[in-house]
Amino acid sequence: MNVLDHNGQPLEKWREGVMTRMRMSYLLGGRQLCVFDQFCDFDLGAPIHIHAVEEILEVIEGRAEITLNGESSIVTANQSVLIPAGTKHGFRNLEKTVLHVRATLASPIFEASYENRAEISRRWTPDV
Q1: What is the mean pLDDT of residues 57-71?
Q2: Disulfide check for 114: which of 3, 49, 76, 82 has CB 3.0–4.6 Å away?
Q3: What is the pTM of this model?
């Protein structure tokens, strides 16, 4: 059994004001899921993007505006949104406190295509 201590896992800066902790991915032993936490400063989050697989976005702490195919909803702690595969989506923090969001992707490798081509399109790919 492989027990991961998430308290000891490092935070990584994904973009200004957005820190990420990978909880599960191919590199951590996952074979079907990618799970990560994001901590976002006010008015920041994830720009509009798509994944080839289904995703669940759950607000752990704070209040987020989640946009799905151009429609926005306010999502608060202990609420989640199912993002169908291939659907444009993004989110941002609506509060002056840090937003904590957990994302679960139906793939062990994080991969996304962003509307803004300056964004990095792939992370945590295996070296095999």
Answers
A1: 97
A2: 49
A3: 0.90
